[in-house]
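User: quick one, sequence for these tokens?
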């Protein structure tokens, strides 16, 4: 409708998955190194989850996520947990596992939910009525929620670019009572995705 209009494009990922060039002239770049130096991007800790022989991997991650959530809470940190997977079916399975294996208060959100449902869940997270969310990719993009500091990865991302963008959501430091971001996953599953 406005072919002659000037446009400004802002992105944290100035590249495309299909390797096509992003149109336009790059006028400003804020590298990750600068974000770390000025404290905008915080420290991230990877916690490998090593299940016992015969232990279900999802149960092991769920228990580790709960232990880290409780430890952070006892340390006075107001963190929230994101349980990440790759399909709605898998998310529903994880919802049952977390209900049976932990005392965490979690809600499921996925692309089939309305924006009102998602807003309601975010409101509950902000109020501290929930400890976290179980999600299928969607909650990682376009959401500014600095209290998301714990990630239980039940299905790692399949590309480095998406993984880095996802990690960026947890590395934000703009709240007073938050600490180091922590990621929990099975090492073998992470290695297989690289």
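Assistant:
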């Amino acid at each position: 409708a406005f072919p002659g209009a000037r446009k400004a494009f802002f992105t944290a990922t100035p590249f495309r998955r299909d390797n096509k060039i992003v149109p336009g002239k790059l006028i400003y770049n804020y590298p990750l190194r600068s974000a770390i130096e000025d404290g905008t991007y915080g420290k991230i800790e990877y916690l490998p989850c090593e299940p016992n022989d015969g232990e279900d991997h999802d149960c092991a991650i769920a228990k580790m996520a709960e232990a880290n959530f409780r430890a952070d809470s006892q340390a006075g940190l107001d963190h929230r947990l994101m349980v990440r997977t790759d399909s709605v079916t898998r998310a529903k399975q994880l919802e049952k596992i977390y209900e049976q294996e932990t005392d965490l208060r979690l809600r499921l959100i996925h692309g089939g939910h309305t924006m009102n449902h998602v807003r309601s869940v975010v409101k509950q997270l902000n109020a501290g009525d929930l400890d976290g969310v179980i999600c299928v990719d969607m909650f990682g993009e376009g959401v500014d929620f600095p209290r998301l500091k714990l990630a239980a990865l039940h299905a790692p991302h399949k590309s480095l670019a998406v993984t880095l963008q996802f990690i960026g959501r947890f590395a934000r430091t703009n709240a007073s009572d938050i600490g180091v971001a922590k990621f929990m996953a099975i090492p073998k599953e992470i290695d297989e995705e690289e």
